[in-house]
Amino acid sequence: MITTEWAMYELAKDPERQNILYREIQHVCGANKITEDILYQIPYLSAVFHETLRKYSPVPIIPLRYVHEDTQLQGYSIPAGSEIAINIYGCNMDKDVWESPEEWKPERFLNGKYDPMDLHKTMAFGGGKRVCAGALQASLISCTAIGRFVQEFEWRLKDDGEGENVDTRRLTTQKLHPLQAIIKSRNLLC
């Protein structure tokens, strides 16, 4: 749910992008509630999810891994027996890979440069033999929640001055302060 909270924070901060998502959900769902089986029809929702994973990876550093054989990685020699950790946060903020990485821009996953179905781009769910078995389920649950929150309510931050306040000192990335938002039922907006 960490990713869902960060996504709602960014959407509450950015009414224009929130409205893009809302209009896309309305176009696909109409008066019906968003469900898991139609998520593939809402590409902007997928882009919001993946961009949130990129900027606010739930796990900023992959726990230590043991290197079984001598390996070359990005020009570095890593001898067998080494223990390595991968800084996902650093990778996801790499200006050589991501254009304007400090900005939250879901559109980057819609322009064809980054494939939103490639979960390995952000490494949020690991990869290879150690890919998270719950990656698809987590994606479905989070996207459905984000979609329903935007479908049912208009969001804005309670305090416009609220900063991101990212805590990456733990095993998971968290907001230092809980999300405080003002929500207004979209039914009342009609």
UniProtKB/TrEMBL annotation:
Protein name (record): Cytochrome P450
One Pfam family hit: p450
Source taxon at top rank: Eukaryota
Residues given in the record as heme binding sites: C132
Entry keyword set: Heme, Iron, Membrane, Metal-binding, Monooxygenase, Oxidoreductase, Transmembrane, Transmembrane helix
Alphabetized GO MF terms: metal ion binding; monooxygenase activity
Organism, scientific name: Ilex paraguariensis (yerba mate)
Membrane topology type: Single-pass membrane protein
